Amino acid sequence: MALPESSYERLRAADCADEIAYVQACLRLYFTNPAASAGDVSPPNLSAAAIADIVRLNKVATFVLKALLRAPAGDRPAELFQWLDIYRRRTVSMNAACLMDSMEIHQALCDRQIDFVFLKGPFQQHLLYDDHFMKPSGDVDILVSPAGFSRARDALRSIGYEVAGKSRSVWWVRFLGEQHMIRGNGSKASTVDLHHRLQQPGSPSPRDADGFLRRKLLVEITGVEVPFTSAADTLMLSCISVAKALFNREPCAGYVCDIRASANRLDEADQRRVLDAAVSQGLDDTLLLGLRAADVLLGGTGTLLSERAKPILSRIGNEDLLNMVVAPWLSSLRWPQRRTVLWELCGRAPVRYLAEAGWAASADISRRIFERPASP
Fold first, then answer.
1. Helix axes 284-298, 268-281, angle to 10 degrees
2. What are the extents of the domains in the chain?
3. Looking at domain 94-229, which of 3.50.50.60, 1.10.3720.10, 3.30.1460.10, 3.30.460.40 is its CATH number?
4. Residues 6 or more apart from 202 whose CB is under 8 A from it?
5. Which residues pair with 179 in a beta bridge?
6. What is the pLDDT along the chain (376 residues), one digit of tens a residue?
7. How far apart are CA 115 and CA 244, in angstroms?
8. How far apart are the first and last CA of the chain?
9. How far is CA 114 from CA 117, 178, 179, 182, 213, in A?
10. Which residues does 286 contact at the CB level (< 8 Å), separation at least 6?
């Protein structure tokens, strides 16, 4: 039987605490004990539809599938397992197309000698999980410097991409620092998200976004080396994505999994360097929030980063933080005020907080009053 399309409304109406716990148990199994059996996380009488909704919205379906593959075939929830297998196949198809589009985009930008780096997507999944197909990626995210933004846009136009109408506005270009570009004529090509900033107003932004370009590494795909973010920057960007998702009250367990996978690759010396780099970027509390979310969802690691993360946003209990990450639709959630979270992420530093709050207020005014198509 096909599972129905998900909706926040249905999840709000359902009592899905057991399904959330089930997804969490599967994710912990995936990360903590690769040799363990999935028998203990396959209880009966759960809603396959609710679990499917939760894992799809959080982009963790393949993690759950890989955990369940450890169970004997007869112990797997049949309907859920079938849905997860179909979802995985669709992810493979989508990400394969994304990889092909990425290689064409890489060539176009290199031909114009534009400095850029790929963000997230199948390249990151392969680096973190040795698998290009862990999470569906329909977008190709690219970071360039502000000075190279228009040149990169022109390069993408040369291979058939155009700016999507909704992202032509001043709010998108100035405050979000990105534009969506799509191919016309009914093409199913991946959307390109062209960035020159790395965080939305309302959460602290990196002080030196160009540093992500300077520290890039080269990864090989089909015999070609493409630029991608360094291991430390990949962790930092995942933490930025979690802060952004919490601000927008969106599910983000997939990003939290990326945080754990990134942190697992760092020894103690690397962890100290990551902390120092986050401090220099003004993102140390953003980093620690992401790490605390990973410990709450996946279990603490006892590492330097884990210990440092414990006090961040301590007024938010672990259960609330777990639900903020996995199930932000729950009506029982006690959400903190956004300005309270911003105050914490600014290290309770008044000058930094006022600067970030002012930027967020300016963005809000722009969105409300001046958001209308701007010439590209």
1. 130
2. 8-76, 94-229, 230-336
3. 3.30.460.40
4. 247, 338, 342, 356, 360, 363
5. 194
6. 344 444 566 666 667 888 999 999 999 999 986 655 555 565 668 888 899 999 999 999 999 999 998 877 777 788 899 999 999 999 999 999 999 999 999 999 999 999 999 999 999 999 999 999 999 998 999 999 999 999 999 999 999 999 988 888 888 888 889 999 998 765 677 899 999 999 888 899 898 999 999 999 998 887 899 999 998 999 999 999 999 999 999 999 999 999 999 999 999 999 999 999 999 999 999 999 999 999 999 999 899 999 999 999 999 999 999 999 999 999 888 899 999 999 999 999 999 999 999 988 888 887 777 555 445 5
7. 26
8. 47
9. 10, 16, 17, 20, 11
10. 203, 204, 236, 239, 240, 243, 278, 345
List the structure tokens of 108.
């176009």
**252 token code pair:** 């983000």
The number of residues in the chain equals 376
